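The freezer alarm interrupted the setup, so I double-checked each line after restarting. Inputs confirmed:
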Amino acid sequence: MSVNTTTLRAANGPVRRRSVGSWLLPLYVTAAFIVLLIPIVYTLVFSFNDANRSNISWNGFTLDNWQNVCAQPDVCIAFGNSLLVGAVSTLLATTLGTAIAIALVRYRFRARTVISLLLFLPMATPEIVMGAGLASQFLTMGVSKGLGTIIVAHTMFCLSFVVVTVRARVLSLDPALEEAGRDLYGSPTAVFWRVTFPLLLPGIIAAALLSFSLSFDDFIITYFNAGTVQTFPVYIYVAAQRGIPPQANVIASAVFLLAIAATLVFQVGAARRAQRRR
Amino acid sequence: MAMTALAPTTTATAAAEPPRRRPGLIAFALLAPGLAYLALFFLVPFVSLLITSFGINDPVEYGAFSYGFYWQNYVDVLAEYWPQFVRSFWYALLATIFALLISYPIAYFIGVRLRERTLLRNLLLVLVIAPFFISFLLRTLAWKQILSDEGPVVGFLQAVGLMGPQDHITGTAAAVVFGLTYNFIPFMTLPLFASLDRLDKRLLEAGSDLYAGPATTFVKITFPLSLPGVISGTLLTFIPAAGDYVNASQSFLGGPSTAMVGNVIQSKFLITVNYPQAAALSILLMAVILVIVGTYVRRAGTEDLL
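Predicted 3D structure, all chains:
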């Protein structure tokens, strides 16, 4: 396709006039990104603020908050809870969702529409409704809220996103590869683990990452089903009334920098590989 | 790439799949656990919400209610909270429109203009999803500080005379809509990008070869072809924005006069523990959203979203 565009351009020559958009658009996009990044920069900068309990006005630069993250133990406990909930619910949602995605592509079902609807609805329901619904179910059943109920809730809302993500990968899978595996007398299990699974792995990893980030950042559903347990977002919401300690900014900034670094390494690597292929 | 996965939410339909085999035991074993999970923790909660919404709240004992068929709950909450209801959908609509207007040029720039420059394009995509990596609560609080009465924005606007000394930004409807717009811009940009990324540039060139100006090319070619992205982006923004209660909460960007229906549900459920009324409000919110989304999707012409 890129070949086609370049030949077209060459044939047309430089007669095509440059529209206003050619400089206005980059300018606009730059401005928009600057505004969008302001709160992130603010959070990063205030992780170095020499503030005690309420991190509102700038009191001078310090590295103390980064060195003593757990000086506010609640922050660290909440962060640990978030990691635990994220890991367990990602594992559950990815397993259940991958199985559904494979079955949906491979088999013909009479109840297909109903199944699709059941998978689509959680993505179209406002979080507060799902949160209140689950909470009232736990209430009716007499289940006491805690880490377990948070994990149940997170697995539920991550599941559909896993199905959608993995399904796209299953769709792009060449069935001939699995046939080749069967022709070579691979048992169904062997074909799955040695052919299908490795080919699906990028999709499964993407789904797991998505699931973890959805879980890690969720507040609304969590707050309804957390009881007295605090995840990191719940901690921030509760602390917002009396002021957020700078340690919360440290944790958020550290997670942000790690995630961005990982993404950049991945993207630069992908771009390099793409260029080499060209 | 974690978050770009959000994009194919609705666009995966493009590839028509040929279902191959009849379901057997394996298909059942693959499907059953996940679907049972959703039935148990997504559908059943709806039923318990519905049952609770017809319950009778105990006026004496805190948080207690008895089951019944007390449809008066719905009348009561509508009579008392219709302003919050209307406000929720109005704010969500405004935020969706603003997010679309802000995101479209960004998505167009990354998806169409930068198509040949892979590295720069991927870096800008990382910037689009960057906010996901910092808790949205902290980012909203950052805006609260920046827009507060002591903050630089209010100071500047008062200095140039655009704001009076008694005026505020935080606590107003404008601040809440601003916060909602800001929080949902990535959810709008990513599906738009996914659509525009697939746009065949030769069609745009054909447009200008046929003497269409940039505006005509946009209206007749670019925008219609990006419609799937517009639909999924607006849904991914509108639905969660209508149910949001963080931005409008008073410890974030809102004030006493900006409460949305989410704030009412949250305080009914967790503070005043009037479960039947909280449940009735949730059911009403869901019903209105289903009607709006159903109508919108049907009129926009894409019926199967998954």
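Quick read of the result. Residues 128 and 186 of chain B are 6 Å apart (CA to CA).
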